[in-house]
Amino acid sequence: MAQNESILANVLEIFRRNPKKQYQVEQIDRMLRRDRLGSFSDMVKALSYLEQKKKIITDGKGHYQLAQENTEVEGIFKANSKGFGFVKLDDEDADDIFIARDYTEYAVDGDSVKVKITAGGNPWNGKGPEGQVEQILERGTKTLVGEFYPMTDAQVKISHFIGYVLSSNKKLANYRVYISQDGLHPQKQDIVKVAIASYPDKNNPDSMTGVVTNVIGNKNLPGVDIMAIVSEHDVRTEWSDDALAQSNAIPDHVTEAEMANREDIRDQPAVTIDGDDSKDFDDAVVLWKLPNGNYHLGVHIADVAHYVTENSPLDKEAFTRGNSTYLVDRVIPMLPFRLSNGICSLNEGQDRLVLSCEMEISPEGQRVNYRIHPSVMRSHGRMTYNNVNKVLDPDNHEELEEKYVKLAPMLQDMAELHNILYQQRHQRGAIDFEEPEAKIIVDDQGKPTDIVLHDRGIAEKMIESFMLLANETVAEDFYRKHVPFLYRVHETPDGERIKSFFEFCSAFGLHITADPNHVKPIDLQKVVAKTTGTPEEAVVQMMMLRSLKQAHYSEEPLGHFGLAAKFYTHFTSPIRRYSDLMVHRMIHAYSEKGTDKKMQDHFASYLPDVADQTSTQERVSVDTEREVNDLKMTEFMADKVGDHFDAVVSSVTSFGMFIQLPNTVEGLIHISNLTDDFYNYNEKSMTLTGRGTHRQFHVGMPLKVTLTNANVEQHQLDFEIYDPNAPKKPHNNRSVKTERRGNRGFRNDHAHKGHYRNNFQKNGNHPHLSRYKH
């Protein structure tokens, strides 16, 4: 123990009060002097002793921080194919804990574990905390998908297993899963789903056992590759008999009885505006100018809650799915097609039940009045974004259908109001990014034939503006009523992350004066404005998105940082999102049955479960869609090995660089292929710098690259920098997968339809950031 136990305890207490804070010697000295505790010499001795005992860590330049040794924490184990892993904690700002191969306690990827931290890590040398798994709390992987390999009759007789499965998940591919004779008996090359019966242990460290519960199909058949991914993510594709029976019992038309007590707005020229290939239409819009100069905007949303009643079989199915999942060649719907494409779809010329949000908006973009009520409507036109954009293009001379010509004045007024609403959102600080969307085109065999980029036009943007306004209006209305409600929230980002982002921006000459601990949306919007049209635009936007939190659902009105909105919900896509269906259900209940304590207690009792489920299933759909895109993009590039491409560095890591092609395809240049020098990685600036040549690679840097390997099975593309003078050499096929890390933002809240826009490739043109979903 140090000579002065009192000063030692006081110094240690300073660190314990703020375990993540880094202190300079002068700061510690001032705090001790303020409380008249010890001398400078005593403090130095205490710091030296605490460092020696590994209670604190230092960068050697007068900065100190508390070490985290011997702390027990809980988190999710993320395995690496080489045997080691990391534990991710619930605190998204906490560092992942490294777990060496010999200290995993045979945990499998996804397991919930208790970990003892054995080394606290050091933020100054980039070394994170280390630990060992003490206990497996809950198995996270209970099923897996992979290829079946049969055993011979002799082997079956000895082992009592019919074969084994190798998982298509690279993090589980090291394990053979032996298949018992119970359950289904697949054939060679079948892709199957397995329920795990036993897990690795000290006696069987490299194997598990299980039962085949589903044969997806032979791996060479069209569509099996996509359905394998769908099955691996447990995206539900089958309907219960009760749900189908309920769906089939619903009339395919609106009855006179259903129209009672609803406002009849069938004479209003409301229209749907969607993509060319859309099949379900859950929102319609109508607009006219009022005598006082204001705009009347009607947003009419399919009244799905009228048909999908609480706790019914259809409701339980929709809750389980959480949302529809949009893949390159199919949609896995939240509701049966009979509803989503039929009675709940606002098809042209058909009477339909809707919930209406009618708003009066001033020429300055202020909402001055509104009503939310049930209606019956009839769509006066199934319109497409492409054709509406042509109507709004003064240079377009292409002849269009009569409905477009007839409704052109209303569409032009809509575009005018959109510009007003956009400026109003911009002035309050809403952060907006524009990027081309990529769509993967596949043939009838599921083979990708092209990747097409599409820029959003005025039509897409104005529908987005109208849906955002309706969502805000509904959220604010029920907040003012002081009743339990479901909100879409995007919380204020962590100050440390924003501080790191500001420091990153300074490298590009962007001097930001905002306080990172009290950052406002408009502060980040100004950063976007400064970089628009510059070479740094993509990288700065990407790094900004990385600093933001992930949008999610909550029963608490926590606001929406990205949209700079105090109140926000999801009201406009009840065919595709359970959150919106739930919002509709509450609107009906509060309107028809009142807002007494009994009704409030009813919704308050299970809203947290709805928020958790919808947030979780949203991420499941995003991950599924992203993995399917990775697969099809790799397939698309498979016959292009050896070709040269223009590219941009999209991310820099310690093991290499991710690069992105103009068509949004992404791959890896491994650091082992940078053979002209030894490169050092700088985490703060995200750069690789050559020791001898001082050549530097950074995010946003243009490169000419050569595709050297396309591993379709692992969804992996490998590139190297193109050198026309370099001799050809065989490619070393490494096992580094181009994983796309989840973006933590709010991009989907700009996508009014609720589609998880697979093309966005993780925000800001960067496939590692698809968390930016509103």
Indicate the overall shape: globular
Q: Sketch the major β-sheet.
A: 5 strands, mixed, barrel
Helical segment tally? 18
Poorly predicted sequence stretches spanning 5 or more consecutive residues: 731-744, 752-774
- Average pLDDT for all residues: 88
Structural class: alpha+beta
Helix content: 25-40%
- Give the distance, in angstroms, between the N- and C-terminal Cα atoms: 54 Å
Cα-atom Rg, whole angstroms? 29 Å
Strand order of the largest sheet: 4-5-6-8-7
Question: What amount of the residues lies in strands?
Answer: 25-35%
Number of DSSP strands?
A: 34
Keywords: Cytoplasm, Exonuclease, Hydrolase, Nuclease, RNA-binding
Organism: Lactobacillus melliventris
Catalytic activity: Exonucleolytic cleavage in the 3'- to 5'-direction to yield nucleoside 5'-phosphates
Family: Belongs to the RNR ribonuclease family. RNase R subfamily.
